[in-house]
Amino acid sequence: MKAFSTVSFGLTLVVLVNYICLCYGDLRIGYYQGKCPSNRTDVEQIVKRSISAQFGLDATVVPALLRLQFHDCFVRGCDASILLDGPKSEKNAPPNLTVRGYDVIDKAKADVEQSCPGIVSCSDIIIMAAREAVVLGGGQYFDVMTGRRDGLYSIASQAVNLLPAAEISVTDSIALFASLGIDVPDMVTLIGSHTVGVSHCSAFQDRLYNYNNTGKADPTMDRGLLNSLKGTCPQNATNDNLANLDQNPLSFNIVDNSFFMQIQNNKGVIGIDQEINQDKRTNVTVHLLANDNVIFNAQFAAALVKLGAVNVLLDPLGEIRTLCRSTNDAPAPPPSRR
Ligand code: HEM
């Protein structure tokens, strides 16, 4: 009798869970197919065209969009909370002050709204845009899942607490990524996004002049790189200059495994980039990816898909924003004084 009631309780639970899952939306490939007023509308194609056009004007949209996905997904999940305007919203938190690409997403959203109004979330547009960035940067095409909804809240202090600082240790980084369900190989692979883009001197200045308060440079940094970065980032400079994250001059703007080869040669610019090559928990993956660009492409795509699934909001949670910078029920702006 006891066995029977346990079994029937289990079955009821399975039925209930299934029922709940059917009530909710889902995250899947091709979620928007057939959802727009015209069946012929292909939302992913619209985003692709929009991002390609903007890439034609400024190729640095590639790193901008990759970093945007990371900073969105790490705070409240991939819910486009980073896009919300407001004095105390995430985008105004110090770790996000160098994040770019908001206007690129606005344009893609406007393009999508023209033929599919009120249907496509800003959080999905960030994910589709990052995929296009990978392809435009020379990486591999991959399918992305869609069906996310947009969050209603954006809180600067959460961005401060959850986004990693340049000098984070490997141990803390592993714990941070693990808290979001991302394992060590995927963490290392995702840091491989530093195959494109730039860093401000302020993010690695300590490695040049006062590593761990020693008054000296980081001894693990390649001497040639150290001298060149000292030239870009003089000790008492008033400008916060930029350095390429991938030190291969032929590949600094290409999505490939060259970053991993560079860090194997002690040419990592940001502290964490170099440390994943020194630490035995992470250098196995560094080695694997540095040796094979085909493996890198496949692993990188898979890791971005996992990042894109972090704490997503599914129907009926959240909303579909009309403008990515404000929630639909945000108070109307004050009337103009004209
Ligand atoms: C522990 C992990 C990470 C740390 C500490 C870190 C830190 C940083 C820092 C300090 C910069 C330079 C920002 C600036 O000075 O403007 C940067 C840039 C960048 N990060 Fe990361 N990052 C991490 C992981 C990631 C991940 C997982 C991604 C993507 C999935 C990513 C993508 C990028 C990109 C593409 C840039 C270049 C941005 C541009 O050129 O505008 N990073 N990161």
Show the helix and strand layout.
Layout: H1 2-23, E1 28-29, H2 43-57, H3 61-73, H4 102-115, H5 122-136, E2 145-146, H6 156-162, H7 170-179, H8 184-191, E3 198-200, H9 205-209, H10 223-232, E4 242-244, H11 258-264, H12 271-278, H13 283-291, H14 293-307
Antiparallel strand pairs: 1-2, 3-4
Protoporphyrin IX containing FE binds next to α3, α8 and β3.
Extract low-pLDDT stretches: 13-23
Order of helices and strands: HEHHHHEHHHEHHEHHHH
Question: What about the largest sheet?
Answer: 2 strands, antiparallel
> CATH topology of the largest domain, which one?
Peroxidase, domain 1
Q: Class by helix and strand content?
A: mainly alpha
Quote the beta fraction: under 5%
Write structural notes for this entry.
The protein is mainly alpha-helical. It folds into 2 domains: 28-161, Orthogonal Bundle (Peroxidase, domain 1), CATH 1.10.520.10; 182-306, Orthogonal Bundle (Peroxidase, domain 2), CATH 1.10.420. 47% of the residues lie in helices and 3% in strands. The strands form 2 sheets. The chain has a two-stranded antiparallel ribbon with strand order 1-2. Helix 8 (184-191) packs across helix 14 and helix 11 crosses helix 13. It binds protoporphyrin IX containing FE. Protoporphyrin IX containing FE is lined by residues 63-64, 66-67, 70, 98, 100, 164, 166, 168, 173, 190-191, 193-194, 196-200, 203, 245, 270, 272.
